[in-house]
Amino acid sequence: MRASDVVGLARLMPRGDISYVAPPYGAGDARVAEVLVTEGDVVTRGAMVARLDNQAQLESAILLAEANLAVRQASLVQTRAVVANSRNEALASLAQARAVASEATASLSRTNDLSAHGVTTQSALDTAIAAERQATAAVEKAEATLARYASAKVEDQPDVIVASRNLEAAEAELARARNDLVRSAVVAPISGTVLNIHARPGQRPPTEGLMEMGDTSRMMAEAEIYQDRISLVEIGQPVELVATALNRTLQGRVATIGLTVGRQGLLSDDTAANTDARVIRVMVELDEASSTIAARFTNLEVIARIDTDNQASAQP
């Protein structure tokens, strides 16, 4: 190792780091019913990786919402038929009342003529007058009844409007119930490899998530570089990564340099090491061969050696 080399502890990680697979929002106290993957499986984003035990309850809610929707649909059909029949009956009643009123008016006119010539009695005249008034009142009543159906369109009738709104509410409830069903499915947030599973059937998903995933198709390393050495580090510089668990040295290049200073998170086996050191995190992108090897060692602690003399390769 040359004096110009910058050395720091690092850990191997998938591109984008580790993703923690959490149960869906609103799952509540649901337990794991079935885990559909095993560690090492490669899954695509959105694929179901586990099923929770609230599925039966949520499916029952869908069946109930579907039944309610069917009732509302039938109610709307029935309401339309009732309104249409009632309007037709009101029209028929008005026509009949007008016919009776017309006959009563004509009868009263004849009775008045007979009374003027002294041919009929006062009692007969009074009866004709009462009949005409009663017929007129019947017409007014029939007109008032028909006025409830002022619009010729059945869909514009108040009862039909109410039934239509109830149907829309039932449709919305069914849509909500179907959307809620996703709360029983745990899906992969990314495309990648299942690294670790934290819960089994019958258990509640722990706070750290149901499982861990990562895109191990492209591995990286996160190195912690002491703040007094970071000025020597540049993007593109070659990096060697070594660890006793590896049978070879991994190769990579500096990809990004952090913008903040923090406490050291990786601790050396050296008891004399400064555990309160201030470091800056440097991301190292491994070459293809090294990435393939590192894919089996997520979170493995390694030692990173950055060759700061190699300025030519620092160019992108």
UniProtKB/TrEMBL annotation:
<feature type="coiled-coil region">
    <location>
        <begin position="160"/>
        <end position="187"/>
    </location>
</feature>
<dbReference type="InterPro" id="IPR050465">
    <property type="entry name" value="UPF0194_transport"/>
</dbReference>
<dbReference type="GO" id="GO:0030313">
    <property type="term" value="C:cell envelope"/>
</dbReference>
<keyword id="KW-0175">Coiled coil</keyword>
<protein>
    <submittedName>
        <fullName>HlyD family secretion protein</fullName>
    </submittedName>
</protein>
<dbReference type="InterPro" id="IPR014315">
    <property type="entry name" value="ABC_heterocyst_DevB"/>
</dbReference>
